């Protein structure tokens, strides 16, 4: 019943948005270059979907189209906008993807038809991926798109729009064979390996700006804020295989060879489990106390209903209500119960680390190994070294911090694995 209700509600919402778009009003989020117009109807209800141009942002949009049409790359455009201190969408730094977007999906500054005075809606739909449970977008056929002319929202004229489209087509034709080959190879590789694009996907960060390190070439990591936005000076890059090797070596050195592992984890497990026992004991005591108070309150109510009211009952009821509120407040603020730490967790992690290199390239076990690595490493911070091409990698994670538990007086950095890696030219 609930599922049918939600499905019916979704259909009504879709019809409502379609009707709004057909009237020339926005049916989705706010695009860069525009702001919401706040109006109300005769009944005081807000009128939704009205937009107007933000003049200073419209100038930036036209600048992007002019520079791209004249031969400037999205990466260079983004870097120059950031150097000029011009905030990007949502006030963030500009990135090449914000400008380039995805042509077939109509995303990115260069593909947004609203800048030509045409509102396009229903380009895509969202469905749940059965393998991950996450919502993913799927393109709708063009016959289902809704187009509405909104000339008052035009920012780029037809000549400028067509010039940008012509350059996009030139680029697509120039790299068509290469792009198709890379996509096919990547799809086959991911399907065969059934694991993330990289073992360290999502774990690498820049020690200079705090942003993400990502694949800027097929097998080389670099700071995305430097290479895509020009907002960071960290130009050091590192080969994927080399940083993966160093991370695994660091984990082995720290989790397999360190003599303090067993003792540190044992002490940590004992302390965490002791805290768990105290929390559970307090929770049980509060539960029993609450039951007792509620029984007493119920007894007073029954007595009053039976005609046995006494003036003292009022004061007693108020005191019981105060106790009940105090107990419930304490229960609401209590930390959530967490599972006890297994006493053999050190051995479990050691075994995982030892077999990493053996299963990473295995189509069946590779994904599990990559997921297990995320449980060991919270973050890998990459910073420039003092030597030319040198990259310093620091491993940070919960278990690495646990190793310091038995030695709290030592330098906090002992929980990190520091390795120096030479970046290949």
UniProtKB/TrEMBL annotation:
InterPro entries linked to this entry: DNA_bind_recomb_sf, DNA_bind_recombinase_dom, SSR_resolvase, Zn_ribbon_recom_dom
Pfam families named in the record: Recombinase (PF07508), Zn_ribbon_recom (PF13408)
Keywords: Coiled coil
Organism ancestry: Bacteria, Pseudomonadati, Pseudomonadota, Alphaproteobacteria, Hyphomicrobiales
Coiled-coil regions listed: 258-285
Name assigned to this protein: Recombinase domain-containing protein
Domain of life: Bacteria
Domain Recombinase, residue spans: 41-174
């Amino acid at each position: 019943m609930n599922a049918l209700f939600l499905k019916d509600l979704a259909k009504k919402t879709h019809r409502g948005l379609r009707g709004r778009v057909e009237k020339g009003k926005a049916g989705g989020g706010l695009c860069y270059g525009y702001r919401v117009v706040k109006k109300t109807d005769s009944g005081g209800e807000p009128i939704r979907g009205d937009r107007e141009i933000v003049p200073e942002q419209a100038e930036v949009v036209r600048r992007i189209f002019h520079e791209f049409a004249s031969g400037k790359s999205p990466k260079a455009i983004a870097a120059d906008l950031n150097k000029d201190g011009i905030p990007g969408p949502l006030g963030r730094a500009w990135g090449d993807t914000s400008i380039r977007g995805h042509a077939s999906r109509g995303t990115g500054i260069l593909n947004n038809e609203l800048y030509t005075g045409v509102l396009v809606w229903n380009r895509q739909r969202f469905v749940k991926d059965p393998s991950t449970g996450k919502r993913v977008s799927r393109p709708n056929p063009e016959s289902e798109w809704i187009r509405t002319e909104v000339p008052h929202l035009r920012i780029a004229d037809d000549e400028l729009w067509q010039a940008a489209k012509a350059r996009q087509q030139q680029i697509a034709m120039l790299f068509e064979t290469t792009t198709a080959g890379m996509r096919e190879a990547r799809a086959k590789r991911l399907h065969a390996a059934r694991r993330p694009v990289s073992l360290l996907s999502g774990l690498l960060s820049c020690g200079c700006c705090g942003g993400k390190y990502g694949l800027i070439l097929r097998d080389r990591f670099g700071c995305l804020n430097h290479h895509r936005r020009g907002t960071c000076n960290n130009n050091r890059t590192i080969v994927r295989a080399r940083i993966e090797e160093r991370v695994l070596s660091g984990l082995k050195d720290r989790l397999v060879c360190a003599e303090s592992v067993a003792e540190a984890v044992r002490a940590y497990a004992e302390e965490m489990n002791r805290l768990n026992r105290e929390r559970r004991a307090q929770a049980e005591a509060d539960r029993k106390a609450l039951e007792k108070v509620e029984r007493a309150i119920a007894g007073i109510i029954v007595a009053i209903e039976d005609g046995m009211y006494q003036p003292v009952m009022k004061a007693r009821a108020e005191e019981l209500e105060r106790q009940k509120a105090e107990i419930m407040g304490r229960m609401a603020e209590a930390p959530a119960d967490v599972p006890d730490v297994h006493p053999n967790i050190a051995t479990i992690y050691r075994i995982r680390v030892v077999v990493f290199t053996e299963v990473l390239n295995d189509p069946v076990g590779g994904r599990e190994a990559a997921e297990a690595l995320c449980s060991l490493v919270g973050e890998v911070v990459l910073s420039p070294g003092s030597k030319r091409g040198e990259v310093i990698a620091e491993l940070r994670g919960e278990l690495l911090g646990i190793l310091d538990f038995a030695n709290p007086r030592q330098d906090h950095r002992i929980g990190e694995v520091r390795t120096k890696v030479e970046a290949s030219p």
